[in-house]
Write a structure and sequence with these properties.
- A four-stranded antiparallel beta sheet has the order 2-3-1-4, covered by helices on one side.
- The protein starts with a helix and ends in a 5-residue tail after the last strand.
- Helices cover 42% and strands 25% of the residues.
- Strand 2 (58-64) and strand 3 (69-75) form a beta hairpin.
- The longest helix has 25 residues, at 2-26.
- By secondary structure, the protein is α+β, with helices and mostly antiparallel strands.
- The protein has a domain at 28-97: 2-Layer Sandwich (Alpha-Beta Plaits).
- The protein has helices at 2-26, 42-49, 81-90, and strands at residues 30-37, 58-64, 69-75, 95-97.
Length: 102
């Protein structure tokens, strides 16, 4: 009987630790950056859609061809604007960080 109680107690503690780890992952500091690009067609947009989402820490990528912008939301502890600019360069897309509006 003691073994069963001990196993139940350990299981409950294990679930508590797993829940704490899951919460830590969801509370990561997300950053959203808008990039001005030379994207002018759907083919260019597909190049971005096929590469940027796979960069470390990237959570979401939105390409807007008419405005030539790409909005990227990422985990700021795993990536940076500079790393994303390198990713644009790898797929031969010119990009720069858009000035922030005040």
């Amino acid at each position: 009987m003691k073994k069963i109680i001990m196993l139940c107690l350990l299981a409950v503690m294990g679930f508590g630790v797993a829940d704490a780890v899951a919460q830590k992952k969801t509370n990561a500091p997300l950053k959203t950056t808008v990039f001005l690009t030379d994207v002018d067609c759907e083919t260019c947009a597909k190049k971005i859609d096929n590469s940027l989402p796979f960069q470390k820490g990237v959570k979401e990528v939105k390409v807007d061809v008419p405005s030539r912008t790409v909005t990227v939301t990422y985990d700021a502890t795993k990536s940076s604007d500079e790393a994303l600019l390198k990713a644009f360069k790898k797929v031969k897309v010119k990009a720069e960080v858009a000035p922030t509006k005040k």
